[in-house]
Write a structure and sequence with these properties.
By secondary structure, the protein is α/β, with parallel strands linked by helices. The protein has helices spanning 23-35, 49-54, 62-71, 88-97, 109-117, 141-155, 177-180, 203-209, 234-246, 261-269, 281-295, 315-322, 336-341, 352-365, and strands spanning 15-19, 39-42, 57-60, 78-83, 101-105, 128-134, 165-169, 212-213, 217-220, 250-255, 272-278, 301-306, 326-330. The chain folds into 2 domains: 2-117, Rossmann fold; 128-365, P-loop containing nucleotide triphosphate hydrolases (Rossmann fold, 3-Layer(aba) Sandwich), CATH 3.40.50.300. Helix 3 (62-71) runs parallel beside helix 4. The protein is globular, with a radius of gyration of 22 Å. The two termini are 30 Å apart.
Length: 375
């Protein structure tokens, strides 16, 4: 799947990500990569955030630069290439994406060789963000999001140095993730009480203020009632996710399937988008529309198929029909409704939901690692 498309670079071979469409430019980049002994990966916009941030060098044309500037954070070591002398549109696109330089091909090919040959040193936080979305109503996205957070806590997937998992409720019209976990009566911050200043949130302050579940799961939920169900703003959601990612933790977001500004921000930020699909024909048809919209913002997606399958529809067949990698096909979770009514979700090791959560965590664990790149 796309999250594995850029594999770990070999020793002395940092990754170069190329986002260009003109044939002459593509051929030039391939030649320069061969000459400088670089691992070169070709892609098309929209590119996922993990690909964007994990590459040592990104080479774009004007069209790709504008697409990346609209959806991805600024980063170092971006080069814009143009066929012939750069036009005003090329310079404007370079400014928008924060390119370090603009290189005209073929006249300035030597500058491109120098850019490929440089060994950059960048530090990028190594946390991860996974977004869980329902492919249809009642698919069970909230339950899976909670399960991923709980399994991360149980397995220490947040990392030994900072074993923190942040579970984010981005659906103000849901029942509330705190209620699903049985901690709705616990004191702590909800979205309605979170003030974001200068677009930033302190990870330490956030962790101290939020109610917790398990060993190290912090939960940021929406309130309830007619006056308390306010959800996040796009700025607040982005700040919270970046705080969790920057602290090296795992951020799990429960996002509604209907389009929204907040949902779009979280989809853009995700390292992996998991769409939960009921094992029914109707569920698959509804999920097609959801997946098509998600693909416009993030290519790193997979499906979890949840039983029961009253018509005998197999998860692998449904995933093939949807054209998206299958992360897991789950049996129905026994006694889930009773569990939620009597104190919140509590999954055993053999739970189907827990198995699905582990499959999601395995994909995240296999993703290209981000961090400091030395010369």
């Amino acid at each position: 799947m796309d999250i594995d498309r850029i594999g770990p670079a070999g020793p002395g071979r940092p990754r170069v990500l190329g986002l260009v469409t003109a044939r002459a430019l593509v051929q030039c980049l391939r030649s320069v990569a061969a000459v400088t002994d670089q691992t070169f990966v070709e892609a098309v916009a929209p590119v996922g955030r993990i690909d964007w941030e994990s590459a040592d060098l990104v080479v774009v044309d004007a069209e790709a630069a504008l697409a990346c500037a609209a959806r991805l954070p600024r980063r170092e070591r971006v080069v814009l290439v143009s066929e012939g002398s750069p036009t005003l549109a090329d310079w404007q696109a370079a400014t928008a994406v924060g390119a370090d330089r603009v290189v005209a091909i073929p006249d300035d090919e030597a500058a491109l060789v120098a850019a490929f040959a440089e060994r950059g040193t960048r530090t990028v936080a190594d946390g991860a963000v996974v977004v869980v979305v329902g492919g249809s109503g009642g698919a069970g996205a909230s339950s899976l999001a909670a399960a991923v957070a709980l399994e991360s806590d149980r397995s220490g997937a947040g990392g030994a140095a900072n074993p923190w998992t942040l579970l984010v409720d981005a659906d103000p019209f849901g029942g509330g993730l705190d209620l699903l976990l049985g901690i709705e009566g616990d004191p702590g911050l909800r979205w309605s009480g979170l003030a974001v200043e200068d677009g930033r949130v302190s990870a330490d302050a956030l962790r101290a203020a939020l109610p917790s579940c398990g060993t190290a799961v912090s939960v940021l939920a929406c309130g309830r009632g007619r006056t308390g169900a306010d959800g996040p703003t796009p700025a607040a959601a982005t700040a919270v996710v970046e705080a969790g990612r920057g602290a090296g933790g795992l951020v799990v977001c429960d996002v509604p399937r209907h389009p929204s500004e907040v949902g779009d921000c979280l989809l853009d930020a995700a390292d992996l988008v998991v769409v939960v699909v009921p094992a029914t024909v109707r569920g698959g048809l509804a999920a097609e529309r959801v997946l098509a919209r998600i693909s416009e913002r993030n290519p790193n997606q997979g499906v979890v198929i949840r039983g029961p399958a009253p018509g005998g529809l197999r998860g692998v067949d449904l995933a093939d029909r949807l054209g998206v990698p299958l992360l897991a096909a789950l049996r129905p979770e026994p006694r889930l409704d009773a569990m939620l009514e009597r104190g919140g979700i509590d999954l055993g090791r053999r739970s189907p939901l827990a198995a699905g959560a582990r499959a999601v965590l395995d994909v995240l664990a296999a993703r290209p690692r981000r961090g400091r790149r030395a010369a």
